[in-house]
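User: Here's a chain of 360 residues. Predict its fold as tokens.
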Amino acid sequence: MIIKNLTLHNFRNYTDETFAFEDGVNVLCGRNAQGKTNCAEAVFYLCTGTSLRIKHDRQLIKLGESSAQLTAEAETKYGVVTLEATITENGRELKVNGCRVSRSVEFVGNLKSVFFSPGELRIVQDGPDERRRFLNLCICQNAGSYSLALMRYQRILDQRNALLKEKDLSLIKNTLPVWDEQLAKSGAVIITGRREFLRDLLPLAKEAHSYLTDGAEELSLSYESDYPEEQEEVEKKLVRSFSDSFERDIRVGFTTVGPHRDDFKISISGMDARTYASQGQTRTAALSLKLAQLELFKKIAGEAPVLILDDVMSELDLSRRRKLLERTRNVQCILTCTHMDRLLFGRNMKKIKIKEGRIV
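Assistant: Prediction complete.
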């Protein structure tokens, strides 16, 4: 997958700008707060339909404007695809090849990307929310059925939680089983999808981590749940779990069990990375996950995704910079940085200098 061009209109600090990218390494350089990360964010948004930096899309609109527009043309093994997102204060409109799509699942995954920045260390360091986010973003780009199940699950979960706050206990008892069955059906798809993805990711992450550490450490991933293997059995167990947690859920006013509470464990040489990893080990583990994601996306899609490296090189020592760049061969890479010294070790690249939201 190759992004040929990206046009931004009233997006973040850009008024009107068009980026032309090449097949290999594309370096967005300039001082801090000039718009490099904003460009990288726009690419990721068109791939996933979401941003890693904000909660509400309206925050992407340039200050003082009423709407923003992002458009990209890309080449895939299926041909040329054009993606367009128009964002307003009240919502957004998504188009694929000029045709409006009503659901984000029809938009996400037409162009795939792997995004890595220093902020992604949260996957290792922070709580379960960050690891679930990582899994959801990865799987949604490759499986529309998972994306649909995730949307349905969240919608039903919101309705179930609202019901749990009702004062009429008989209404809750009579209505809750209906929501539980629907929640379990979508939840089983999510749990099965996550477990299969982690199973496929694990050997690739182990290999990447061994490569980055010269075999000095071993990375391990494990899904923290005791669900059965078969999806139908997972669904049955979820129904029982929702029923068993009824009194507790009533007491606290929300649903205390289900895939929205799940986690996966990252271990380095048998030790819990969240608790015991140093900053350097955390950085290497997060990078290993992203390199594994890159390889797995290649296998699933039959072509490499776009790799976005946002201000990563300054965080790595020279050895890991070299190793990372070696893994980016034959992959389109969009890389942001402030300084070019010794950065790319003689690699051919396209350099795009950005100043105050403009290409200079």
